[in-house]
Amino acid sequence: MTDNSKKQVQFNDLFRPIQDNxxxxxTTEDGEAGKTLxxxxxxxxxxxxxxxGKSVADEILGELTSTQKKNYVLSWLYGLKKRxxxxxxxxxxxxxxxxxxxxxxxxxxGPTHRVDQMLRASPRNLLxxxxxIIQILRNKEPGLFTLWVSIGSELHxxxxxAPRIFYVNQxxxxxVDSTDVYRKCIRTLPRSHPVYHLYEYEVPEEKYERHLHQxxxxxxxxxxxxxxETRVPLFFRVLMQLGCxxxxxxxxxxxxxxxxxxxLNQLDSALDDDVKYLSEDVFKTIFLYNYAQDxxxxxxxxxxxxxxGLVWIVEKSxxxxxxxVSALYSQERKAKLEANSKRIFPEEDYTFKVTMETNxxxxxxxxxxxxxxxxxxxHGPTMVAYISSHECDQLISLISSLSYFPVVKxxxxxxxxxxxxxxxxRVGCKKLVTHFLNIxxxxxxxxxxxxxxxIPLGNVPTNPTQYGSDLSYARHLCKNGHVLWCSNSDVPxxxxxETDDHRLNVDxxxxxxxxxxxxxxxxxxxxxxxxxxxxxxxxxxxSRILDFDNSETFFKASSATKKTGVATLHSLNSYNNDExxxxxxxxxxxxxxxxxxxxxxxxxxNVFADNHMIHFYRWLGSTDSLLFDPCLKRAVDSLMKKLYLxxxxxxxxxxxxxVHADLNRVILSSGRPKYDDAVAHVDYILRTIQNKEIFSVxxxxxxxxxxxxxxxxxxxxxxxQQCTQQAGKDRMLADTTTDNIGLTMNWxxxxxxxxxxxCQDSFKMIIAGYIMLIYNFLINSxxxxxxxxLDNNDEQIMTTQPSISQGLMQQKASMKLNYERLKQFSLExxxxxxxxxxxxxxxxxxxxxxxxxxxxxxxxxxxxGSHLHLTNPALELAKALCKVLSLDEMIADExxxxxxxxxxxxxxxxFAEIAEWKNPSLSMILRDFPCKQxxxxxxxxxxRDFDLNSNNSETEIWRCSRCKTVYDIDEIEFRLLQYLxxxxxxxxxxxxKCEKCQEYNQQVKESHxxxxxxxxxxxxxxxxxxxxxxxITVLKNITSRFQMESxxxxxxxxx
Length: 1055
What we know:
Blueprint: H1 20-47, H2 56-66, H3 72-91, H4 95-109, H5 114-121, H6 125-128, E1 131-138, E2 144-151, E3 154-161, E4 164-170, E5 182-184, E6 197-203, H7 205-210, H8 212-218, E7 224-228, H9 234-242, E8 245-248, E9 261-263, E10 267-269, E11 284-293, E12 296-303, E13 308-314, H10 325-339, E14 351-357, H11 360-376, E15 382-387, H12 392-398, E16 407-409, H13 424-437, H14 439-453, H15 464-479, E17 516-517, E18 520-522, E19 526-532, H16 534-540, H17 542-546, H18 559-575, H19 584-604, H20 607-614, H21 616-621, H22 630-653, E20 657-661, E21 665-669, H23 675-690, E22 699-713, E23 716-721, H24 728-735, E24 742-747, H25 759-798, H26 804-851, H27 853-856, H28 873-885, H29 892-905, E25 925-930, E26 937-941, E27 947-948, E28 956-957, H30 969-988, E29 992-994, E30 1000-1001, E31 1019-1021, H31 1025-1042, H32 1045-1052
Parallel strand pairs: 3-9, 11-15, 13-14, 15-16
Antiparallel strand pairs: 1-2, 1-8, 2-3, 4-6, 4-7, 5-6, 8-10, 11-12, 12-13, 17-20, 18-22, 19-21, 19-22, 20-21, 22-23, 23-24, 25-26, 27-28, 29-30, 29-31
Helix pairs in contact: 1-2, 2-3, 4-5, 9-15, 10-13, 15-19, 16-22, 18-22, 19-20, 25-26, 25-28, 26-28, 26-29, 28-29, 30-31, 30-32, 31-32
């Protein structure tokens, strides 16, 4: 006979129908289990046990399984069913009633249940209250993110699942318009591509990555027009949709249990006027600082709980040469409080402990222990704010304890080579103390930035202006129903059809040259004006600029300006073809965004919106921008150049003489010899121009003022720059002394003359001497005329008051007399002292070169822009001097006989080819090159805009014109690779134009391609091959000079 009580129960028997006799058995067993449980509780209470009791579920489960009855598994299931019924009844209550009951219970039972109430009530805030997102972290699992969220005084760690969203434009509709995976929608495609049947797909990121190859294959199918938004980064989509403040959708608020992970479509951005990001300062801040140079580094960790700052100095020798950091902190804090008592600084009772280390890994271990100890101490919501060159992910990999806190990188950049001194430890300690004292100012500024850009505090990018412009533009596009063309490469995402027309993807910087240059010697007050906000004004004034399609504006301008303006406008009208009309919809959205920036600046003086406006054009043309589109930039370039031509025409019509003009600045001569008159005249003209609606946004700021300017081009000029602010007679007397004269000598052609035989020194001495002699003569003449005018005024006051016409006639007569005197003085100077100096200098250099004939040719320096074979130092010096002196129209005719005599001394014919001066340098311009130190963006000419290296006088270095920081060679190489790829595309995809009438042949079909134009002229290429060959020559020179291997490899495929 078998014992059925020991027989194993089959799995199917567990789910058979319940019998009546079994119900009685389960009731009896449950009653016995309850009695046993009560007996155990009484026993524990009598013994006074201090151990924590088990949970209710563990007690019931343990008791039921310990009963020595038959069918104990059935009894266990019965107990669980009773609990399930009770939970189902409780779930019918509304969530807020349950929370209220929990609060009441915790108040009635005392403080022992407050932790349990917090654990139940705190997660409910995720469903009912807005989230202040501190940081978004990427996980290793595709599509999964970790969010550090602040809700009131609570800090939560939330998991977020973001799907991959893309759009498929099909020529043939699907049988079902909507499923769980896709749905039919209406959107505007990039560049106004035709919409046939557009479907929005939403799939998990893992599934998308598995089927990515199949998706790329489907692009080539006939029924697929394009697949869009496949290159949008998931992190960018999360930031774009959530911003910095979000909340759960109302559908989630009725849930009893908070989800373990949220989906992106379950959250909405909640940044309204009533919800301010991080308005409550409830966080404690741990400050972390690091600066490293070669093997030396300084680390600091300031704990807010213990008021202790831990400092580590890493030095291989271990020699301590640091100051007393605590005393330094007290001293710096006291000085800052005296300077600004309203600012908030860290507490005064901080003490600093300095430790010397020989290995940086010891610092990582010490910081890890300190952070883990702080976390275990449970000091409340805390975040880590750090200043370092390490990115957040890299720093967490070095110090794993940072993962316990939200980490905020304060993008404060210290200068380069900070430790290049003997007392580098003192410099490093002072730097960390300064940053720690400014920690609250830094956080306030970064919070304001995040509120404006709507990004989390811990996710401020390296270039916040560019990334913020991408986010703002993407949000505006999505709001207006556009499909994005985001891409991490320099080619936008146009649904897989990016290579259909290469012309649309070429950013032709040199397609239309709009620069105006008039060489000469300007003896009146000359102003340099910086043109500010020209791209913004061009975008906002689009409708008015598009009406500017004729050259009537230039009819009243001077001959030189009219000729250049009409030619440039004709090129722009031919260049601005129908391809830019495709961007009309996206352009309107961009105009709406720019108008919003202008409103923020005008009404609220928002500095961040102003920064976006300043760097708008750089963002538009940067290939690092996610929404970069060369065709969009081309449309803005065309508008800018038209507005620029209108501005130049207005200045010219107002009586100002244009010396040099480009899209960034304009140099103009006022025609007034007196400083006060010239300033008043120019200010009046600028006010008049800016009162016009089309130029109201454009700012013209005076940056430099010259009393005298000898101008060849933007890289070759010299003059007397205004450096005092005195007026009247005192200013003129002060300018006569050499201490107050700002003599400017910027001659790029000087670098191409040999340093041997005193060629460069002779050039500078002769040109500077001529400028100063003319300047002193003008000052003396002005003083004499001023004293004569004063005497005449005294006589006229005693007799009768002169009329206005008589005063103007006297002024014209005086100006004519001064002109004749100046011309006579210049001719006398040329025929006398100057000619003698020229002949002596050339003979001296010629004799020195004859003594060393073998080294004469090798003394000419070679730079990346050199393209001439120069062998005669005396000849090149004579040509350069005559070229510069001939800029003065008063002696231009008389300088040719002098040049002929100088060439005769050198045995060179007057009409020989080598007797003509040519610019010794080619030109290669990198448009909108940024400085990473001060963020200045300018056009960099690699061939002409350079300084000489102090270690090697024949090696070029390129510096920022504002902060003098040397540009990174790797960054220049990367831009040159883009430049090479760009102009190769533009050359091979160029249009044809008529050789006679310059009309473009825009017909691309073979049946419409004509051999000759209607006027009978033959078609030629728009871009000449000689120009591209010169560019390749310069690229080769740069490659060989700076060892750019990537650029050399790219050039090897071309030539």
